[in-house]
Amino acid sequence: MSDPHSPPDSVLPNDPLPDDFENSPDVLEPETTDPLNQALMEAAQWKDAAHRAAAELDNYRKRAARDLQETVKYANGSLLESLLPVLDNFDYGMAAAKAESEGSNLYIGLSMVLRQIQDFLKDNGVVEIPTVGVAFDPNVHEAVSQQSSSGVPEGGIVSQTRKGYKLRDRLLRPASVIVSSGPAPV
């Protein structure tokens, strides 16, 4: 009988290992990590993070510049909006001076001031909203009433009661208008 503490006969310490010993699934190899490969992988991760941070910073700068440009573009909006009632009253004064006499010095002087105001508004990006002869647009027009009209189709603007203005592409004040309800019933 053989000794239970002795190695089996089939495996002797001086026997050569089989050819497929290294590829054998039951052979456990200790995990070996190459420090160079590990450092290269870590460097690639840090490089990727740096590129992402740089791109994020660039996007932030572009967004901040765009926001600043928009703020500057529309900064005078509230000032210009508060100037509109003054312009309305000036237009009423012009109408009264015109009714008196178009050749009067008052009318000529007011006309010159009106031109300066209009040039100032135009230089600052303020444009008057067209009304008479166009279709009613609820985005820029405010309907104050309806009126039957044989000359203006239904939904068209018959007259304007107050001018409306836009600052570039933003609405400062809608134009108050009277909208046609079509021809009067007979």
How are the elements arranged and paired?
Elements: H1 35-73, H2 77-100, H3 105-123, E1 126-128, E2 141-147, E3 157-162, E4 165-167, E5 170-173, E6 175-180
Parallel strand pairs: 2-6
Antiparallel strand pairs: 1-4, 3-6, 4-5
Helix pairs in contact: 2-3
Describe the structure concisely for a colleague.
The protein is α+β, with helices and mostly antiparallel strands and 186 residues long. The protein has helices at residues 35-73, 77-100, 105-123, and strands at 126-128, 141-147, 157-162, 165-167, 170-173, 175-180. It has a 3-stranded antiparallel β-sheet with strand order 1-4-5. A 3-stranded mixed β-sheet has the order 2-6-3, with no helix packed on it.
Structure characterization notes:
This protein is of the alpha+beta class. It has 3 domains: 41 residues; 48 residues, no CATH class; 62 residues, Nucleotide Exchange Factor Grpe, Chain A, domain 2 (Roll), CATH 2.30.22. It has 3 helices and 6 strands; from the N terminus they run αααββββββ. A 3-stranded antiparallel β-sheet has the order 1-4-5. Strands 2-6-3 form a 3-stranded mixed β-sheet, with no helix packed on it. A hairpin with a 2-residue loop joins β4 and β5. α2 runs antiparallel to α3. The protein is elongated. The relative contact order is 0.09. The model has no long low-confidence stretch (mean pLDDT 85).
